[in-house]
Amino acid sequence: MKHILVFLSAFAALTAGAQAAQTTTTAASKPLGGKHDNNAPINVSSDSFQADLNAKTGIYSGNVIVEQGDTKLRANQVRVSTVNGKADKVYASGNVVVDSPQSGTATGDSGVYSVGPRVVVMTGNVVLKKGKDVMRGAQLTVNLATGQATLGGGSKAQGHPGGRVQGVFTPNSQTQ
Fold first, then answer.
1. Out of 2.60.450.10, 3.90.78.10, 1.10.760.10, 1.25.40.10, which CATH number does the structure's domain 2-168 have?
2. Does the global pTM surpass 0.90?
3. Are strands 119-130 and 57-68 parallel, antiparallel or unpaired?
């Protein structure tokens, strides 16, 4: 579970910083159990960017890549909503992948980072991998302020067999 929290905190730091020009600090100031550098430059690239000043949103679209240090977020689209000129919520959608060499890979259909409460929610075929260890579910919620995480199985209607969480853990694997 420690590895899952590390790369989710890295996801939160990346997504919070996706609009680094709007704020000088990220909301996830201290990753859980990891050494993610929240002060490292955040690089964002995409096929296009669109800002809506009235709605106070910015949307990166097409092959979005957000990198900070050795952690990378990829998605089809990343939308950032702001309040008072600072990032409020960050929405990543379409083939969301968060990679970190020290903590593994998290994938899902979408992810939302709520900056104020420091809560990350990944939904839709969530898969967490670290080495040979794998966990699967429908929704992952991580509260970065408290360090609490919940992986839910979803329902049969959502395409999840029996609405259950699945995990495969390999003893003595190199997943420190």
1. 2.60.450.10
2. no
3. unpaired
